[in-house]
Hints:
single chain, 800 residues, 30 helices, globular
Amino acid sequence: xxxxxxxxxxxxxxxxxxxxxxxxxxxxxxxxxxxxxxxxxxxxxxxxxxxxxxxxxxxxxxxxxxxxxxxxxxxxxxxxxxxxxxxxxxxxxxxxxxxxxxxxxxxxxxxxxxxxxxxxxxxxxxxxxxxxxxxxxxxxxxxxxxxxxxxxxxxxxxxxxxxxxxxxxxxxxxxxxxxxxxxxxxxxxxxxxxxxxxxxxxxxxxxxxxxxxxxxxxxxxxxxxxxxxxxxxxxxxxxxxxxxxxxxxxxxxxxxxxxxxxxxxxxxxxxxxxxxxxxxxxxxxxxxxxxxxxxxxxxxxxxxxxxxxxxxxxxxxxxxxxxxxxxxxxxxxxxxxxxxxxxxxxxxxxxxxxxxxxxxxxxxxxxxxxxxxxxxxxxxxxxxxxxxxxxxxxxxxxxxxxxxxxxxxxxxxxxxxxxxxxxxxxxxxxxxxxxxxxxxxxxxxxxxxxxxxxxxxxxxxxxxxxxxxxxxxxxxxxxxxxxxxxxxxxxxxxxxxxxxxxxxxxxxxxxxxxxxxxxxxxxxxxxxxxxxxxxxxxxxxxxxxxxxxxxxxxxxxxxxxxxxxxxxxxxxxxxxxxxxxxxxxxxxxxxxxxxxxxxxxxxxxxxxxxxxxxxxxxxxxxxxxxxxxxxxxxxxxxxxxxxxxxxxxxxxxxxxxxxxxxxxxxxxxxxxxxxxxxxxxxxxxxxxxxxxxxxxxxxxxxxxxxxxxxxxxxxxxxxxxxxxxxxxxxxxxxxxxxxxxxxxxxxxxxxxxxxxxxxxxxxxxxxxxxxxxxxxxxxxxxxxxxxxxxxxxxxxxxxx
Length: 800
């Protein structure tokens, strides 16, 4: 790990405080005057902006530059503590004495202890538990540049391919051992016992290439197998002569001089992945009548599309390598006996559009071993996961007839179960967070006790720390999910340091420069979400149903509002009804904008209209808020709210129908980890206006393939939409240009084909490096086991 260059702004700040005490005191006095112990980045910037209006000399001062770098401040009567983020995950902690203006650097531990002191009213524990994983990273290969974050496999290949070259020259046997370890249900693959050294491997490759070059390129493996076996080669090199030559040529290149490109190309062909377990316990996981239910949305869509793409890729790769094996993908989720008309009470459900993939459901059991019959919120799931993991292990082994080759966890609960299964089965683990709750709820760590009865963040954040550090590799959809932006902290970065007073403080929890992080963006199902201009594929038979959904009359218990001005363009949004999705915020913006109400109608698909149909407290609050907004703004003739669950084909055609009407898709979330509905809408050619907080910031090229909006400034957001609609009314090419930009962006970056290819390559590369190097992280695993046993388990058991 390279030493960090000191922050040049600190000595400049010290000089300013010493030489400009009056100005500095004025700034500090203003911050104290806000009468809040904790100020976030936006608070500090708003305060600075106000001060600069009154005194423009402050704007160019070292103190102003420091405050612009600060992500938070903690304040009492004597001190202002600042957390400066000079670049991604590189922090400086300072304190300024309010009387003397003395400046001191403090450690992260001291900064967190000061926050604890303020949050608890002085009842902080001087001997509180500290979690510090830095010692385990000291001897590991880590990235140095923030531009490399999320490209971990490229870094590993560059660094370790040169090391492999040196060790091969010394007669290293680990590459040979890796090639000989591959088999499937007793059938040896790649190499047999005839090859016992790297020198013998090199010679066998040379000898085998001679007859392979003489044979016609498309000679099938079956006609070559006997001769190749005599050289020491089993199945797995290719399905015909040309493919086998290419694979052997790649290995010869590696033995000659390993390069990152040749190494990755060769490993991508090694038959390592025959079965995958995908873990997603919470919510209502199924294929019909589940979307829109509590805790059930984009993650379910993501996983089902992921399964189809991965199975296709696995099948193609095995076929290309000459292996006649049917791959298996199993989604492990919870069985819910009281299934409310869904399939969630069925143990096995084949996944449509696949050959062999299934949903395998395992029930939750209480402490007495009794099956839990009803749905449980994702925030109250923690007491059941350990027993679920044990039961799921037995069911999975029975279903597959052996261990899976890769376990993929999803969200906090699925990632924790994946960690337990991976440890017990000795299988590589991949994590996909989808969303880390810690960044969605402000100060949720510091005031965890206030949220404990409802959200149980103590257990969830502990589970996150364990699962992130247990994983062999982590997949994210965007860069900012890992490392944020120049101005904002990434979701994973937020686990670098934090405190939950009275529980523990984390001084080093996650290192976003760890090469385990990789960006692999998903797409939308291309059979469902395709351009509105593709007339031959359009589902014309659904048009009447869609017209009734949008313009029809009241639907008992399922709708509110009937649109009276049918010729207006449509603003469309679709999401779960929870606070973070901010659907009520969008409705309020619309209600407060006379200009937008004159230009367009709003169509909302989300949640339930009848609060009595919801079993989720937060959703019921949002439903009541929606009804209040309809009444307060008088929206029943301009907003159509549908509390229904749309099947995917209908949803796809609805996007296209709104595009036919030159409408827009609006995604107003306070935070969106990725934004699958944004991808779906863009795939259909529907222009998108989406939150700038989260994945849409990277998905959308502002002004080219959509527009970013700030959900904290509703008036500005509605003005942006209204301006675009006005320009489209004057020039229809404006809408067409944005639509074309959306389609081009999706094709360039966001398809399941690219996702599946990258995912399968990553799993092989990490499996290889785990075998030939010290990526087992054994010491870290022991530390995490203790943390799990002494911290997580008591927290989970305490949840009633």
